[in-house]
Specification:
Shape: elongated
Number of domains: 2
CATH architecture of the largest domain: 2-Layer Sandwich
Oligomer: single chain
Order of helices and strands: EEHEHEEHEEHEEEHEHEHEHEH
Strand content: 15-25%
Radius of gyration: 22 Å
CATH superfamily of the largest domain: Histidine kinase-like ATPase, C-terminal domain
CATH class of the largest domain: Alpha Beta
Largest sheet: 5 strands, mixed
Number of strands: 14
């Protein structure tokens, strides 16, 4: 199974055979080549790198584990002004290539400040690329040496074209037989304090009591896992997948944990607004893989904290403990 990303929405396309992949990649390359002529157009916004990269790392971790490779992150602080879907496509392609062509050892991804830019580094202990052939790997259908084991050599060609659309800079440092570092650089963007994730209330564990928690997520596996975790913390949990199902329960629970992207065009913000109308005392948090500045702003206006998937169970435990504290003892979000 080959997987490749290369369009603005950042959606993953799974392909069952090489011919299908060739057709898809040629289409993507053509759309990117159109650029200002009417093809894919970037929609820039402030993008915090930690949630974007963190979500990708967790998505690709099974691939690393399947090959017996370590997949680690370094510092991920900072934000850039760019199209989040297109940047996600670049980073996923770089990570996927690094994992695919690293036979042993591992891959690390991190963010470094370089002057006015932030540089995302993907470093692997893979096969490396001879110096005289490093430019070639950005060409379409190029495979060099040991890299021929898998793939058609289209990922980096797509990366370079997306980078041109974003005015990003792609650089490579590699030593044959020792590994490579692929980097993408973009100007740093200062995020206003108001866009930060709202701080969680602090609870006194001695004052906690079991609370009734409603979990809303469109993926049944996540619903089941969340309910099991919350029950294991000593609370009562109900899990549902739609707004209609959630609204049937909101009057009878203390806490709502809502995903952002639901099925059939529904979203967690709409649920939050409707739930508050039915239960003004409801304690609410969003748990989502989406961590962009636009969503954070909308949550901040609603005074709703955000937990970026994969959410830290310990952090959720503290949040739920806080919900059990009388309101006079809770710390309000700033």
């Amino acid at each position: 199974m080959l997987e490749e990303e290369g369009h603005g929405a950042g959606e993953r396309v799974a392909l069952g055979d090489e011919q299908h992949f060739v057709e898809f990649a040629v289409f993507v390359a053509g759309e990117l080549e159109l650029g200002d002529a009417g093809g894919i157009q970037p929609s820039p916004e402030p993008v915090e790198l930690a949630p974007l990269i963190g979500e990708l790392v967790e998505t690709l971790r099974p691939l690393a584990e399947e090959k017996g490779l370590a997949l680690r992150t370094g510092p991920l602080r900072g934000a850039v002004w760019t199209d989040p879907g297109l940047l996600r496509s670049i980073v996923q392609n770089l990570l996927t290539n690094a994992l695919r062509y690293t036979p042993q050892g591992g891959v690390v991804i991190g963010v470094r400040q370089r002057g006015a830019d932030l540089r995302i580094d993907v470093i692997d202990s893979g096969v490396g690329i001879p110096a005289h052939r490093q430019r070639e790997i950005f060409g379409e259908f190029t495979r060099i040496g040991a890299v021929e084991a898998e793939g058609l050599g289209l990922g980096l060609a797509i990366v370079e074209r997306i980078a041109r659309l974003l005015d990003a800079r792609i650089t490579l440092a590699s030593h044959e037989g020792r590994g490579s570092r692929f980097s993408v650089s973009l100007p740093a963007h200062a995020m206003p304090e108001s866009r930060a994730v709202l701080p969680m209330p602090v609870a006194d564990a001695g004052q906690t009591r079991p609370v009734r928690v409603l979990v809303v997520d469109n993926e049944q596996d996540i619903v089941d896992a969340s309910v099991a975790m919350i029950t294991g913390l000593g609370h009562h949990a109900i899990g549902v997948r739609t707004i209609a199902e959630a609204l049937a329960h909101v009057a009878d629970v203390d806490v709502l944990l809502a995903d952002y992207h639901l099925d059939q065009g529904e979203d967690g913000l709409r649920l939050i607004d409707q739930a508050r109308q039915r239960n003004p005392a409801l304690v609410i948090a969003m748990v989502s893989a989406e961590g962009g500045a636009a969503l954070r702003n909308r949550l901040h206006m609603r005074r709703v904290p955000l937990f970026v998937k994969p959410a830290d169970p310990a952090a959720l435990a503290v949040f739920l403990a806080s919900a059990a504290v009388p309101s006079t003892a809770q710390v309000e979000p700033e």
